[in-house]
Amino acid sequence: YQQAAMGQWELWQARQPVAAALADPAMSPELRQRLEIAQAVRAFASAELALPDNDSYRDYADLGRPWAVKNVFAAPELSLEPRQWCFWIVGCLSYRGYFDAEAAHHLADDLRTHGDDVYVADVAAYSTLGWFDDPLLNTFIHWPIGRLAELMFHELAHQRLYIADDSAFNEAFATTVGRLGTERWLARHGTARAWEDYAADDQRRQEFLQLVAT
Q: What pLDDT is recorded for position 22?
């Protein structure tokens, strides 16, 4: 909990309102364009998808690293059932999240020592479930437009509905909202290139899922 509180505090210290960021004449044209698009996506989320109309994604923060948090996933050797950890407020999850990379790898090494299969994932974004206002981050702001929109809709969906102790439902719900919302956004505001990029990304995901299922 201590590293989580410290990491969240550091993230807050790095953020600034998007309007203030856009007023910086030194900002690169690429970042300026992405922040403007993100604000249009944010307005669409509340106006068209009934997602929370709060201050999430109305600030921007550069964390100075390519990930927001590191998530540690583990399962007993040859098992398909992940280990779970239980926390205050959010309930039980099939991973542990860390702002502190060293702490994440320390846990991973300890789990491996006890025979678990372990994966440490670099995670670009996460939701505080509406408890705090989540900012736009450098870790995902330059993603293709479709992926950027889907991520924002996905994380805002967690703020709209989150069931404690049911990671499978929560991710399925948020993924559905994210994907259907992105299709609606691209249909109204997307370019042909944005549609092509999103379709190619979706095809890669489907091929991967089919491979795993096989």
A: 93
Listed in sequence order, the residues at least 6 apart from 34 whose beta carbon sits closer than 8 Å to its beta carbon are: 141, 142, 148
| Amino acid letter, 16 | Q
- As a whole number of angstroms, the distance between CA 99 and CA 93 comes to 17
CA distances from 50 to 47, 54, 77, 153, 156 (A): 6, 12, 43, 10, 10
169's CB contacts (< 8 A; 6+ apart) are: 163
| pLDDT score of 129 | 83
**By CB neighbour count within 10 A (0-12 exposed, 13-18 middle, 19+ buried), where does 27 fall?**
middle
Judge contact between 185 and 149, C-beta under 8 A: yes
CA gap 110, 43 in Å, rounded: 44
Q: Is the dihedral of CA 23, 25, 27, 29 positive or negative?
A: positive
List, for the chain, all residue ranges whose pLDDT scores fall below the cut of 50.
none
Q: Residue 88 has what pLDDT?
A: 79
Burial category of 157 from C-beta neighbours within 10 Å (exposed 0-12, middle 13-18, buried 19 and up): buried
- Separation between Cα atoms, residue 19 and residue 140, nearest integer Å: 19
